[in-house]
Design goal:
heterodimer; A: alpha/beta; six-stranded mixed β-sheet; four-stranded antiparallel β-sheet; 12 strands; B: ten-stranded mixed β-sheet; binds adenosine-5'-diphosphate; binds magnesium ion
Amino acid sequence: MSYALEVRNLKARIDDLEILRGVDLAIPFGEVHAIMGPNGSGKSTLSHVLMGKTDYQVEGEAYIDGVDLLSMTVDERARAGLFEAFQYPTEVAGVSLEALTAEMAASNPDDDGFAERIAATTERLDMERFLDRAVNVGLSGGEKKRSEMYLLGVANPKVAILDEIDSGLDIDAVREVAAMVEALRSPQLGVVIITHYSRILRYMDVDTIHVMVGGKIVRSGGPEIAEELEGAGYMEYQVASAS
Amino acid sequence: MPQTPSGTTEATWLAERRTAAKERLGTLSMPSEREEIWRYLDLDFDPGFESVPPGPGSSNDDHVVTGWHGTVVSIVDGYTTSQGVASVGELEESVEIVRGSDLFSTAFLAYAPGSAYVGEALLETPVLVDIQTTGTATTFPGVHIDVPRGGDAAVVVRMRSTTDQAATVVPSITANVGDNARLTLSIIQDWNYATRSLGRGVIRLGRDAGLTFSEVGLGAKLGRLHLDVDFVGDGSHGKIYGAYFGEGDQVLDYRYFMNHIGTNTRADMFLKGAVADRALSVFTGMIRIEETGKRTESFQTNRNLILSEGAAAQSVPNLEILNNDVKCGHGSSVGPLDQDQRYYLMSRGLTPKRADRLQVHGFFEAVIEQIPDQHVAAWARDKINSKYITAQEEGRV
Ligand SMILES: Nc1ncnc2c1ncn2[C@@H]1O[C@H](COP(=O)(O)OP(=O)(O)O)[C@@H](O)[C@H]1O
Ligand SMILES: [Mg+2]
């Protein structure tokens, strides 16, 4: 059995700036993992590097369901089953959410489940009134996250990386997002939640927490890690990684 | 009454105007790129004013805008051919708003057979003015729209060629919008790629008059529109939109002047264009606020997408403000497709081609959705998208 996502010794830099310094991760199907770490530790970079953003020089290995990710273009990775919910979803003026999902379907002719998923996800996330609005334009923070969750539902990936899906949200919205993530749990999907607050983890169950500092995973363990971090913060690890 | 080029009689005022213009024409030469208003253009061609045809050629009667239900006024090679539509030459005095003293404006006065007069009698339903050129002759089509006080008019002007032959056209589109009246004017520039079109537009707005103007520029080897909107009446207001797409060696040239004369006038000008291959687009915008133009609000934005390495866009907004009690602003940009949008769309599984198509569609949508005539908007959207798709398929963008 292959992992939903497997990452081995992944490094990324922009010229002289080393951002990821050898990341190892294994996310089994059916599990929800969290990556926690302070601002600037490289969490968003990890998700962009996996998605294939071309800003970085990359070394190492990454596999989605056993298939090599790093040799693929961004759209090929998406069609292979990788979904990144962006920390800052890009606004696409003049393009409705409905037009976007139609193009997702058209780009993926081998997948005949789009129409059904579009209908079902629209209903489940109550998205009807957003369908003719431009993608991410003029949406509140919470609405943008909901829109990303909607596209995730439509895309039906094997791996979902949710980058700061809880940031900038009030407590009710955090609960709501946590419930949406919980609802995703399925034997066909591995989920990675990236966050720098433990707050969202109070409202959902995660299998494993990874702590990322200075471009590396410095510790992995059970949900108890979140409580420790809430008390002590990342100080201990930052000192350790600096030495 | 004196004779027109086609042998019919024309009003004395028009004959006199013609004679004076012909005299002046002899003293004028081709405008030069050194003049600001002609900057960036290569005007090294023979305008062929001697070739003005004696009458209209054979027109193409396909229905020009799918789903059109209003009145159609045909102008073929500069001659108004529709029954029941007056030429300004039949009016007792000139009502057209003639402006400009350069070679082309003067040639229009000298050679135009007489603009179609689109006045109250025609404006009960939307009017489509179908301007066609049928051959290689230089022609001078004109339309004058006269919206009476309190009236509400919708006019679409479509300019097209019935053949692939090279021609020079000097169109003139003028409008007088009376007090409390509204005009919705949509222009489609769809000449063939061999035609040079040196267009002039002048729109005068009365008190509290409103204008919604749009131009979609697709055709022509050189497609120029020099537009003046005069906000003469207090409280007059206008929205001016444009969408253009240039490819091959096309030059699309817009010189838009918003002239604020009355108090409390307001203008919003928003043009978006894309250029591929070796095409050039030019936008020079001017917001001119006279001393009398107290509490003017005027804004202009021009955004350009460069789709191929050899293509270029010049975008030069200007302000000339003689009154301090005003709000004005301008924005301008020239650049390639947005990398972040491409990345985001590809991360949703869209192929790079589909991602770029969607982005181009979205870029234009902000102006196309503002075109008030739904037929024109749908037509423009479809034409621009298919031009881009063809360019993609041919590897030109
Ligand atoms: N495109 C980029 N250009 C320059 N620096 C970058 C870029 N992407 C990330 N970085 C830098 O890499 C580090 C990690 O950033 P990021 O991955 O966004 O951290 P996190 O998501 O954990 O807050 C930061 O110091 C950031 O400034
Ligand atoms: Mg981040």
